[in-house]
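User: I'm preparing a small set of examples for a lab meeting where we compare how different chains pack in three dimensions. I only have the primary sequence for this one, and I'd like the structure in token form so I can line it up with the others. Please keep the answer compact; I'll paste it straight into my notes.
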Amino acid sequence: MSRPHVRLLGQGIRYLTTLRGGGSAFPGLVMERLHPGFVAEELAKLPHGVVLISGTNGKTTTTKMAVQLLRSQGYKVFTNRTGSNFVRGVAAALLGEMSLTGRLDADVAVLELDEAHAVHFVKQVKPRHALLLNVMRDQLDRFGEIDTTRRMLAQIAAATTGTVVLNREDPRIVSLAEHVPEGTQTRWFGLSAPLRPMFPSDDDMRSAGGPDAEADHEAELAPRPAADVELTSFEANRVRLTVGGEPVETTVELYGVYNMYNAAAALAVALAVAGPDADRAALVDELSRVTPAFGRGETITVGGHPLQLLLVKNPAGFRLSLASARPGDYATMVAINDEYADGRDVSWLWDVDFHSLRSGGVDVVAGTRAWDMALRLDYDEVAVREVVPDLGDALHRFVAGAGDRPMRVFCTYTSMLELRRELSRVAEVAEI
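Assistant: Understood. Below is the structure token output for the 432-residue chain.
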């Protein structure tokens, strides 16, 4: 079968799977088997190359931000907007965006890939730019030791040909600078000193006050690389940044203080791609127009009341989500699954401090690990009204019992997907 015929077959399969409401990566699997070089060949045609975004936390939201920022600069951007982290997911996304004649109307690709799949990707496609966000103890049952994740990201840095943008506040990310090849630029994003305690690295969370505290203090005093973009301060949704040494202000209309930091990362990589021609003022202004990625603070109106879906995967992310609003203002549900995409090991829940939920309690705990979550909350003396493992039943009870309160649901990845499907039956839910 000729390559054009293989592509048309792949596009046909993708169309059929879309009609059935899922299977986004399956057409890509077909292309992997029948035309293994498909992704590399198509992405090599893009005049501004590939931007690869990876790291433990914040990939989906930061990718969405970076795409919107670059589009505001006039770039035609291809992205894997479903967040499929497989190379075959990129192939499926390509099939969906290409015309029947095989033309992709784009001049740059911005791709989110998880650490393991990114390693395979860069063997086929050398990214022109890479943004490496952080290394946290997320899904250690998949990757083993945390330094395994760091080594994966090092391979991405080593394969990048133009610019590697690094988080200067994460020691493991900082160490990746030694892997950046000669001729490739290294750029940085970071935090002002007053904000650093609010966004701890994995090492900060593990050793504060412990035997390594003195070494941590010495590291804190060590000089940091100058950041192209620094998050200086924020109040509510108002954000202050330093960009190229100049102070700027904007708003970020996304739930969660961690998204302020993601905004700095996205701005840093957009500046790297746009180069000296970047319109900084327009980029900063565009940040105020970014809407949430699905499940990442996404708000869905149910029965006239807002319901927010908040993806939680590890202690740092859960802690920052909890800190983003006063618990008493919301009806609260927690949905914890332990499927492969969530991570089988949910012991990380014991590293989260849930004391802030005492004032309002938790209305419903749901998911395959509902009883584990309820036990964890009990240890922090957080009242739980109901434990309902079935997500559909739990959601119905939660909405019915919320009254006039706005609702928020802290959920792992697969529970978030199931909740969105359930919500789509009673509310308008954006397609992904």
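A couple of notes for your slides: The chain has a mean pLDDT of 85. The CA atoms of residues 172 and 336 lie 28 Å apart.

User: Perfect, thanks.
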